[in-house]
# Entry
Amino acid sequence: MHPLRWLLAPLAPLYAGLVRLRNQAFDRHPERASAVPVPVVSVGNLSTGGTGKTPVALFLAEALAASGRRAAVVSRGYGGRRREDPMVVAPASDPGAVGDEPLMMARRLGPGRVVVGRRRHAAALRALALEPAPELLIMDDGFQHRGLARDLDLLLLDGVRRWGNGRMLPLGDLREPMAGAARASCLVVTRGGRADRAAVLDWWGRWGSGGPVFWLDFAIGGLRRLDGAERLAPPEPGQPSPAGPLYAFCGLGHPGAFFADLLVAGLPWVGSSAFRDHQRPTPGQLRALAAAARQAGAAGLVCTEKDAVKLDPGLDLGLPLWVAEQRVVGGEALATWLLARLDRLERPLPPSA
# Structure
């Protein structure tokens, strides 16, 4: 545990008490949450980082688009420093202004599909002013941001890490007590293929809402060069990696998950480095990574899409730099359930432009 957490440990009861009071205030007075005239689907979790909220939000936005529903994503834009707020994220936006995850989503979804804002309601209103207007909104990392009313609350749980030590910040990773799971419309277990299903279902039966449970996984669908010059498919089982041994690095809340996903995809690495979540490596740090990779015998470096949006495509480190393209596996049941629930909402959706 980081030493700072131990220093802040005496504040844990105060933090827990404030979170409970805030939740009770919204539970007793739901009118405090500001509503918008289209459905809002929140994707969030009880713990800090690492559950895969952004990949799931992207998957849902793409699944909704495939069904003919245009969704926009609203995000806090963590780490972004911008003069304009809320702000529409373009594929060419500065990650230092909008944040790495919103930029990654904008590059996948296209222009006019992602809005960042410190106040989610303001970001939602800005999203509704887009042309063409979205038919619904997906709130990325929205479970604790209760100031914006939502129609569905999708609660994510990492099937491997689960709820950690079960303690709240700063002594654990929980943002709020487990009782908050009762607000969820459903439970989405990420990395479900490696989860202890009996333990998860027992936890959901004790703390959850009784809503359905969905199990999905993340897989690396391929590698692409940062400069866009080449793309490689993952190797077939038992075959060597076409990229050779790699040196992996990332700036994630839980980097071990990425390193494990590489191995599952048949992409071995001979060394790894982890930065702080959302950290943008400096040129000097990247040169040091390349030196460490050569020393370890790596044929190239590899990072996540979230890391790649913060890097210069013209970067020359003397080794190829690959970007691991992540995709959701087994999410069809979740998408089908979401579409059915949206169809049953009382207020009609506006027509598509």
Observations:
- The first helix runs from residue 3 to 8.
